[in-house]
Amino acid sequence: MPEAEKITINMNVVDLGKVDLLVEEGFYSNRTDFIRTAIRNQLNRHDDEVRTSMSRRELAIGVISYDRAELEWHAEAGERLNIALTGLLSIASDVSPELARQTIQSIKIVGVFRASKAVKDALADRTH
Fold first, then answer.
1. For the chain, does the N or the C end have fewer beta carbons within 10 angstroms?
2. Model-level pTM greater than 0.90?
3. What is the C-alpha separation between 94 and 99, in angstroms, rounded?
């Protein structure tokens, strides 16, 4: 399973009390278990809509990582990458801003984009 991303939510006290009651009754191991289950259930409920949207936007799903060696290979082959992804895009710390600009033509990310600040700045005009 890919690395988890931390989020923070605000809940009203009555709903939170109901969650705590379900945890105390043994339906869930803790609040996080309840929230993850609720999110998964909603994503499953809307699976057709998610697939349609991803198809319409031409997005892949998953985790993609690029390091210096891989981007140098694309540069030597004269290839420019158009990355369209739902999930996590990670560009390794050994990638220079110049190499990133040379090899990455566009980035469309719905999710998390991890890269050095310098690389993100270099690709800012190519990120949607």
1. N
2. no
3. 10
